[in-house]
Amino acid sequence: MVLRKDFLWGGATAANQCEGGFNEGGRGLANVDLIPTGEERRKIIRGQKKMFEFEDGYFYPAKEAIDMYHHYKEDIALFCEMGFNVYRLSIAWSRIFPNGDEQEPNEDGLKFYEDLFKECHRHGIEPLVTITHFDCPMHLIEEYGGWRNRKTIEFYERLCQVIFNRYKGLVKYWLTFNEINMILHAPFLGAGLYFEEGENQEQVKYQAAHHELVASALATKIAHEVDPENQVGCMLAAGEYYPYTPNPEDILLAQKRDRENYFFIDVQSRGAYPAYALKELEQKGIQITMESGDTELLKEHTVDFISFSYYSSRVASADPEVKKTAGNLFATVKNPYLKTSEWGWQIDPLGLRVTMNSLYDRYQKPLFIVENGLGAVDEPDKNGYVEDDYRIDYLAQHLQVMKDAVELDGVDLLGYTSWGCIDLVSAGTGEMKKRYGFIYVDRDNEGKGTLKRYKKKSFYWYKKVIATNGEDL
Ligand code: BGP
């Protein structure tokens, strides 16, 4: 058997993309509620446009999403039927602290997740909890400017104290920030940031990143103090940069691009700002304000494991004539050897092995693949059944490569949770049309549909994969 006996198999979701119930149980408004579909979306995500209230004429899919808030029992039962022993989900911060800066948490919100975690355990499923997955209470953004303000560390710390204590014994796997490097590309999602005219955006982003890195170290510290059983991971939007040609200029640039991402994990896992980052910040004239104690905190409270999402490799070219392709939030040069998804994301199973090797070589800590999958248009038949062979192909190829990295390269891998194990709202587009799930949800781009759940062909396939611990793909 290639994979460890206790390999963690499951799927991943994020509160804002599946829960709905945006104003139920005392939940406060969050940044993610106020991002509509359509042309404005990217601008808001990138912090170029302010959206502080619901505006007529826009559609906000995250408000209702797939209503997992009311369907979670049914959904967890389906995950259990597939054989999941882990389920990655995130906590909506504004359910626990509706404004973010209260002294006392909201009991309804705490109870909701307690019930959900208990339901997971009843089904033999270990929750893997992302503390913040692109969400930040709106009040913290309006009052304090989100993560640009150091005070947000305090509020996050309070959230961690509350949830680690309350869920002790129910949750032992935690991720501090989803795709922490996304702050550079989608700062409103990553840190509740939007920019004023003429502002030095990089300065703001790196200062906010510093606050998140300190908060992450604090979370790790508290998690270990509250329960030594707790395992805390960082979470990177991973994907190796390939040089476009063997031109040394391209190679140097690819290395630079990789470092822009590794920077975060270098701090979270190695415990200090790396020399290259200090030099780069200096050259850009960016000054990070640190407080006494930050350096020690970062040094002493590094993560236990390295988790990451992988959708694709990336390509760097130093030649300004070589065009970038849009695809996802990362701009990359098109790789002529790769096919793309319907949304222009390049598909590179082998790149997963390259990425795993780089991460394992660099950090020498167990890895956990917490997102991977294919966003596609599904066409259900009249019974709601989807024959998603394209998804099965995509996942089978990636899982084969994942096994190779373990078997042939010796990577230590804790588990695999495919992204969007049940159809949910896309983070990039805000659409329902872009589906990742093993379970089809009857809900369309306009928010219509019965919300009924249907098992796709991939549901039965993944069940077999898990039952054989990945032997039978
Ligand atoms: C990652 C996010 C997820 C998820 C996924 C797929 O960046 O962590 O929240 O949505 O990408 O992206 P999309 O939904 O844009 O297809």
Provide key terms for this protein.
globular, 15 helices, binds 6-O-phosphono-beta-D-galactopyranose, 6-phospho-beta-glucosidase activity, about 475 residues, TIM Barrel, about 40% helix, GH, two-stranded parallel ribbon, alpha/beta, eight-stranded parallel β-barrel
Notes on the structure:
- It contains 15 helices and 16 strands.
- Strand 13, helix 14 and strand 14 form a beta-alpha-beta unit.
- The protein has 473 residues and is of the alpha/beta class.
- The chain has a single domain (8-465), classed as Glycosidases (TIM Barrel), CATH 3.20.20.80.
- The site of 6-O-phosphono-beta-D-galactopyranose has 14 residues, from loops.
- 6-O-phosphono-beta-D-galactopyranose (BGP) binds at residues 14, 17, 178-179, 237, 309, 371, 375, 419, 426-429, 434.
Q: Can you give the helix content as a percent range?
A: 25-40%
Instruction: Give a list of the ligands.
Output: 6-O-phosphono-beta-D-galactopyranose
Strand percent estimate: 5-15%
Q: What are the low-pLDDT stretches, counting only 5+ consecutive residues below 50?
A: none
**Biggest sheet: strand arrangement:** 1-2-3-4-5-7-13-14
What is the CA-based Rg, rounded?
21 Å
The CATH architecture category equals: Alpha-Beta Barrel
How many β-strand stretches? 16
Largest sheet: 8 strands, parallel, barrel
- In the CATH scheme, the class would be Alpha Beta
Q: What is the CATH fold-level name? A: TIM Barrel
Per CATH, the superfamily is Glycosidases
- Can you tell me the overall shape? globular
* Terminus-to-terminus distance: 13 Å
Pfam family, one: Glyco_hydro_1
GO molecular function, one term: 6-phospho-beta-glucosidase activity
Family: Belongs to the glycosyl hydrolase 1 family.
Active site: 371
